[in-house]
Amino acid sequence: MQKGIHETTEYLEVFLRNLLLNEKNELHNRNLHISGLLNTEKVDIENEKVDIESVLSEKGNDFSVKTTAHIYRLFEKFGFDEVFGRSAVMELLELKAAGASKLLSNLIQSDIIKPVSGYGKGKYKFKK
User: Fold this and answer.
1) Contact, 124 vs 113, CB < 8 A?
2) CB-hemisphere CA count at 13 Å for 26?
3) Tens of pLDDT, residues 12-67
4) Taking burial as the number of CB atoms within 10 A of a residue's CB, which of 45, 60, 93, 103 is the most buried?
5) What letter would DSSP give residue 126?
6) 43-126, CATH topology level
């Protein structure tokens, strides 16, 4: 918890979907590793975590486990005050352009993030 690492059942769920539903999701061992890009500075994530949880519960959307994990990672990195764009999402979450665009579009439609002006085209912030 101190390093911003949270448990997830995402990999197990994908494995079970392959096994039970005959899906063809790729399972790579490298996806199980914790990124070496951990934040070494001390941050009080407990207050921020409560804020994003309240935002997600208010919106009432049924996001997948993977999308929820992506939202938490984005919020831990940017919080309510920092501006981010698609390239930052791609880098942080290791997504391709299409995946990052789809995630941003879903977050805008769900009223979780908002476009901001004055930083160039395609910049966003989390809504309070």
Assistant:
1) yes
2) 4
3) 888 888 888 888 877 777 666 555 444 444 444 444 444 566 666 666 566 788 88
4) 103
5) E
6) Arc Repressor Mutant, subunit A (1.10.10)
